[in-house]
């Protein structure tokens, strides 16, 4: 959906409808944040599968993933819309190129908080999960090598 909204954004902007532009910008923002959140949920699943291998039963796991993956971005978008719906709009690059219009976040502060900081937080958490998984794999490999040396002796 992110790709579809991104690819149709400039075409929909050409209709010069402010409500349509706000909707397209909001959808683009939502699907971008949802993509980041699902990337984080994949790292959590990676962690559960490779580190917490045994006794990992999470009741209604898929439901919780779906609520998190689609719900947290919806909360962020709702907060931006509640604060000011005019944060979304038409970001024209130049008047001489009418197809350079693009519906997106107009305020730099909102962009840095709701996109860059959001991505940075997820990137840090994914890096922590990845490091934990690597350390776990390394410790298993080290233990396996030590036990094989013991049995050879």
From TrEMBL:
One of its GO terms (molecular function) is G protein-coupled receptor activity. It is found in: Membrane. Its main location: membrane. Residues 1-153 form the G-protein coupled receptors family 2 profile domain. Keywords: Membrane, Transmembrane, Transmembrane helix. GO terms for cellular component: plasma membrane. It comes from Cisticola juncidis. Pfam families: 7tm_2 (PF00002). It is a multi-pass membrane protein. It comes from the Eukaryota. This is AGRG4 protein. PANTHER family: ADHESION G-PROTEIN COUPLED RECEPTOR, ADHESION G-PROTEIN COUPLED RECEPTOR G4. SUPFAM superfamilies: Family A G protein-coupled receptor-like. The chain crosses the membrane at residues 20-41, 61-83, 110-135. GO terms for biological process: adenylate cyclase-activating G protein-coupled receptor signaling pathway; cell surface receptor signaling pathway.
């Amino acid at each position: 959906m992110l790709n579809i909204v991104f690819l149709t954004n400039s075409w929909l902007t050409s209709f010069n409808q402010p409500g349509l532009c706000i909707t397209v910008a909001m959808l683009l923002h939502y699907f971008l944040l949802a993509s980041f959140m699902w990337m984080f949920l994949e790292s959590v699943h990676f962690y559960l599968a490779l580190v917490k291998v045994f006794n990992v039963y999470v009741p209604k796991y898929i439901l919780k993933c779906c609520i998190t993956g689609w719900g947290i971005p919806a909360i962020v978008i709702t907060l931006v819309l509640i604060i000011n719906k005019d944060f979304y709009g038409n970001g024209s690059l130049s008047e001489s190129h009418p197809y350079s219009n693009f519906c997106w976040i107009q305020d730099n502060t909102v962009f840095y908080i709701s996109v860059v900081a959001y991505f940075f937080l997820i990137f840090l958490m994914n890096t922590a999960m990845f490091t934990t998984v690597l350390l776990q794999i390394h410790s298993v490999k080290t233990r396996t090598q030590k036990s094989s040396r013991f049995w050879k002796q």
